[in-house]
Automatic annotation (TrEMBL):
It comes from Allocatelliglobosispora scoriae. It comes from the Bacteria. Substrate binds at residues 158-161, 213, 258-262, 266, 332. This is UDP-glucose 6-dehydrogenase. The keyword NAD applies.
């Protein structure tokens, strides 16, 4: 680590914070995880990751065993312990608005700053509206005890759910938004193993660092909606968006990543981030520059409506009383996250249209049950499929892709399937006597 190895605190032990704390301890840092939620702290201390993320439980055990990772609810303890404090609390969409709710970021920073009476770097990692860092720096200046030298830096996080460990240990890039050379030095020391292993570092000001995050997520969302807009065109003229995407992807300037057509994006990040960005840009007087993000959102929502229409068409025009097996609830595979999940949105729209919907998901069933008690849930894939008038694949879990058309065909009432994620081979399913429909394909 060079000469000084900073001690790290991670404030907020949700998805982002818990992953960051665990990975940093595994990398060799002394880490203290902080949260106001005692039950989260208890579970993590007992070695239990409170959400689904491949590989993370094993790393938590490793980190706890090493003695380098502890958890607390005490901000005073955190202030005493840490040299570098990462703020990792959530910024959900505000109820009744497109704006991001930054109150948890302000609460956590205020609570920490009150106790900081030695030199420290506070690092924002949460996704925030541009300009938040400036307000937080001001808050720290007015809250920290006189004489303490506290600085604020911005270091956005780009991890994907399902690949959180890989993305944290081996990031595509590190962005350091700093106001001084000292802050940059602290950040370099805090990410020494990643830098040594070749992750590029972009050093910039705090505002640009805040912007990188929302600009990246907006670009990714736009890429998905672009191909889904092409799917709409394909539907109208009878062309095939899957072949179109394959051909586009061979152009290395376009590339195939995030060009997968289907039900579109969901989750706790992309939908909320594009809305919050458009809202913030409006406040800043540059709403016009990102007005296209409203269209990106609208295209994404229309895919969900189209998927419902495809099921309706398959069952003969009226969903009333029809049994529909809905495969998937999570917003993407290898996750139990149902925030803004296209899958559950489609399932509940089918339910409201009169269908008898039975949902199955390998990891997200408990979360789905809590959020949508009106839906039926199957205990297994085959039980969910039994007697179905139509099947819709909503989340491309591998177990849904691996089941043979014949096996599925033997339990359903009618061999009709909508492939909402282009996850199945149409030839194989049609050959097995299925009526197969997909978004943007003839
Ligand atoms: C996203 C970004 O990819 C991360 O870089 C970022 O750090 C994170 O948000 C965040 O802001 O915290 P995540 O929400 O975990 O990560 O999920 P993605 O893998 O990006 O998928 C988002 C959605 O897009 C999913 O619903 C997925 O099914 C959909 N998607 C993705 C498509 O419909 N087509 C594609 O080609 C790719």
């Amino acid at each position: 680590f060079g000469e000084v190895t900073p001690r790290l605190t991670v404030i907020g032990t949700g998805y982002l914070g818990a992953t960051h704390a665990i990975c940093m301890a595994v990398q060799g840092y002394e880490v203290l995880g902080v949260d106001v939620d005692q039950s989260k702290i208890d579970r993590l201390t007992a070695g239990e990751v409170p959400f689904f993320e491949p590989g993370l439980p094993e790393l938590l055990t490793k980190a706890l065993t090493s003695g380098r990772l502890r958890f607390t609810t005490s901000f005073a303890e955190a202030a005493e312990f840490g040299d570098v404090h990462f703020i990792c609390v959530g910024t959900p969409q505000m109820a009744g608005s497109h704006a991001a709710n930054v109150s948890y970021v302000f609460d956590a920073t205020r609570e920490l700053a009150r106790h900081l009476n030695r030199r420290a770097l506070v690092v924002g990692k949460s996704t925030v509206p541009v300009g938040t860092a400036a307000d937080l720096a001001e808050l720290i200046a007015t809250t920290a005890p006189a004489g303490s030298e506290i600085e604020l830096a911005w270091n956005p996080e780009f991890l994907r759910e399902g690949f959180a460990v890989e993305d944290t240990m081996n990031p595509d890039r590190l962005v350091f938004g700093v106001a001084s050379a000292w802050a940059e030095e602290q950040l370099r020391a805090s990410f020494a193993p990643m830098i040594e292993q070749g992750s590029p570092v972009v050093v910039t000001d705090r505002m640009t660092a805040e912007l990188v995050k929302v600009a990246a997520n907006s670009f990714l969302a736009t890429k998905i909606s672009y191909i889904n807009a092409m799917a709409e065109v394909c539907e109208t003229i009878g062309a095939d968006v899957q072949d179109l995407a394959t051909a586009l992807a061979y152009d290395s300037r376009i590339g195939g990543k995030f060009l997968k057509p289907g039900l579109g994006f969901g989750g706790g990040c992309l939908p909320k981030d594009i809305r919050a960005f458009a809202h913030r840009a409006g406040e800043l007087g540059v709403g016009q520059a990102v007005a296209f993000l409203h269209e990106v959102d609208a295209i994404n929502q229309r895919r969900r409506t189209r998927a419902v229409d495809l099921v309706r068409e398959l069952v003969g025009g009226d969903l009333t009383g029809k049994r529909v097996a809905a495969l998937g609830a999570a917003f993407k595979p290898n996750s139990d996250d149902i925030r803004d999940a296209p899958a559950l949105d489609v399932a509940s729209t089918l339910h409201r249209a009169g269908a008898q919907v039975c949902v199955f998901d390998p990891a997200a069933l408990d979360n789905a049950r809590r959020a949508h008690p009106e839906l039926e849930y199957g205990e297994s894939l085959l039980e969910t499929l039994r007697g179905a008038d139509a099947v819709i694949l909503l989340t491309e879990w591998s177990e849904f892709q691996e089941i043979a058309p014949e096996v599925m065909g033997s339990v359903v009432a009618h061999r009709r399937i909508v492939d909402g994620r282009h996850a199945l081979d149409p030839m194989a399913w049609r050959a097995a006597g299925w009526e197969y429909r997909a978004l943007g394909r003839p």
